[in-house]
Amino acid sequence: MSAGAARAARILVVEDNDALRRAIVRALGAHIAVVEACEDGARAVERLGDPGVEPYDVVVTDLRLPGADGLSVLRAATERHRSTAVLLMTAHGNVDSAVRAMQEGAFDFLQKPFELEALEVRVERALEHVELVGEVASLREARAQHAGLGIIGESSELQDALSLARRVAPTRSTVLVTGETGTGKE
Q1: 34, 47, 87, 181: most buried by Cβ count inside 10 Å?
Q2: Using CA atoms, how far apart are residues 10 and 123, in angstroms rounded to an integer?
Q3: Sheet with 108-111, edge to edge strand ranges
Q4: Is the pTM of this model over 0.70?
Q5: Phi, psi at residue 158, to the nearest 5°?
Q6: Of 7 and 90, more confident
Q7: pLDDT in tens, 93-136
Q8: Dihedral in degrees, nearest 10, Cα atoms 50, 120, 111, 101
């Protein structure tokens, strides 16, 4: 699985059914270096909010959990690290639950029972998504840092225009900067 060559992907599995939780951890752990697990929502929310714990790339969580539900886990994961992909799974799901989960920012929604291979494919897609989001953020940051390179000038007006251009650069807005050229001496 590819979540970047710099470090291994980190996944948190939150499932109160012991046998299913172990099976998911075993299946994902065969391909991914770091898979951790929690058996209830409250512990997962606590772990996700702990600044001493590195953020997870993907969280796979049941919707119905003791302590805190899957939507609370989803919120905790995305509040901590916006690009964390959350996959919600449930045996009690319906269209309303899926829509609500997606509106809250879930990456995907799985109906139980499911094949572990299907989960692995969805986790792989989630990891690819996380990697792409990271690359886009890096490119936007680099573009914003390089905005204005090649423009020489020290006037306060030019510096104001460059400052505005740097603020607008990460957005999709188009800005036309006009004004005098040179020093006014011909």
Answers
A1: 87
A2: 11
A3: 34-38, 10-14, 58-62, 85-90, 108-111
A4: yes
A5: -65, -40
A6: 90
A7: 677 877 888 888 999 999 889 999 999 999 999 999 989 988 88
A8: 40
Distance CA 84, CA 72 (A): 14
Neighbours of 174 (CB within 10 A): 6
Residue tagged 């509106």 (tokens)? 103
Which of 136-173 are b and which e, b meaning 16 or more Cβ less than 10 Å from the residue's Cβ?
eeeeeeeebeebbeeeeeeeeebeebbeeeeeebeeee
Return the amino acid letter for 184.
G
Does residue 172 have a pLDDT over 90?
A: no
Q: Running DSSP on this structure, what letter comes out for residue 62?
A: E
* Whether the Cβ atoms of residue 109 and residue 99 lie closer than 8 Å to each other: no
Answer whether 86's CB lies under 8 Å from 59's CB. Answer: yes
Q: What is the DSSP letter of 54?
A: P
Q: What is the CA radius of gyration of the chain?
A: 23
